[in-house]
Amino acid sequence: MDLGPKGYKSGFVALVGRPNVGKSTLVNQLMGQKVAITSPVAQTTRNRLRAILTTPSAQFVMVDTPGIHKPHHLLGERLVKSARKAIGEVDVILLLFEASFPPGKGDAYIVKLLKEQKAPVVVVLNKWDLVQEESIELRKKEYKTFLSDSSWSISYCSAINGNGCDDLIERVEMYLPLGPKLYPSDFISDQPEKILLAELIREQILIHTKEEVPHSVAVKIDRLEEMSLLKKKSLKNECTAILATVFVERKSQKGILIGKGGSMMKKIGQSARLQMQSLINGPIYLELFVKVVPSWRSKPAKLSELGYEEN
User: Fold this and answer.
1) In terms of residue numbers, what domain contains 60?
2) In CA terms, which of 64, 69, 160, 241 is 20 to 30 Å from 225?
3) For residue 21, is pLDDT > 90?
């Protein structure tokens, strides 16, 4: 085990907040590279992804949790339960708000939830770059009043352009306990490669289909191996073969995903391959299949098969 220099710190940091406040984007910004998937669609994150940031003085194991929201099906219930469980298992909590809006009822629910646990909380007013200059003082006052009965510190940052992120890391480090490195210095995530690849495919589906299919889609990697094992004669060079199944709930959604003459699926596959290059060196052969499983988000066995276990 790498103990690090004297006074080294390490610990788990949970990013918590409502859907679409920028948790995954902030993780990627702090990491300096893409680890978590992002999209304009709310509730993008489903797995409690752990991204590992190692600096000369500390190691931060960042837990990107699903957005806390009112669930409408079994999958939603499991996601919210997963996020709430993470809150009780970490050393520091980053509570994200979307600074371009004043605090609301959903934010108040999360604040109440966090006051019931002991871990220190650092409030992050994300998307601060979107706050109009004439509204800055008002917005600061609104959140200070909203959080007036807590002792939590407030940071202002932008996960998109990185402003304020260095100061945020320094502030979080203050709360981390002394301890050795929990992972080797070159680790960026502890997620299995298949999970990361499936998430990259799902991200491209969310981006390209917008509101047409998003929350009823899931991806499972069926095979991941060297092309030489598959003996694909149509390809001259060896590459990594990835065969994946995309699950939807309705036939109409399958039609949207495939597109006219397979155009949408081709577009999704091309974009996903580009993103996969950050994880896999060399060419990638990606084949996607679409399968309709009615109401899969409410079926315990299917949720477990897709990795959405009950915690």
Assistant:
1) 9-175
2) 64
3) no
